[in-house]
């Protein structure tokens, strides 16, 4: 059988290129973040907070992708939509479990407060009741 004379370095380069091409055909890379498909209240809803006080539990949401997997690194915006109070951050990011959280501090006016959490066009509302401090 005739074996052409190909320099060793060229044969090695050719083998590496062909091997990489074959490997590329075998691998697929999933998009690790296909967007927030679901935003849920996890905990902290329906708390009673004294005026000027901080809620006992943080307000926590959870994000999921279209495969129902939690999303890490999703941006969540927080806003006091109505009532008297503040949140500890206007924006937070989800952890490996898909959760993001803020703390709520009541203002000086008693009443119902609504805090909105939003991510990629989805939103959920927390309801808190601010009562006069004793």
In words, what does this structure look like?
This protein is mainly beta and about 130 residues long. The protein has one domain (about 40-130): Sandwich (Immunoglobulin-like), CATH 2.60.40.10. Helix content is about 15%, strand content about 40%. It contains one helix and ten strands. The protein has one helix at about 10-25; strands at about 40-45, 45-50, 60-65, 75-80, 85, 90-95, 100, 105, 110-120, 120-130. Strands 2-10-9-4-6 form a five-stranded mixed beta sheet, with no helix packed on it. Strands 1-3-7 form a three-stranded antiparallel beta sheet, with no helix packed on it. A two-stranded antiparallel sheet has the order 5-8. Strand 9 (about 110-120) and strand 10 form a beta hairpin. The radius of gyration is 26 Å and the shape is elongated. It starts with 7 loop residues before the first helix and ends with a strand. Residues about 10-30 have low confidence and may be disordered.
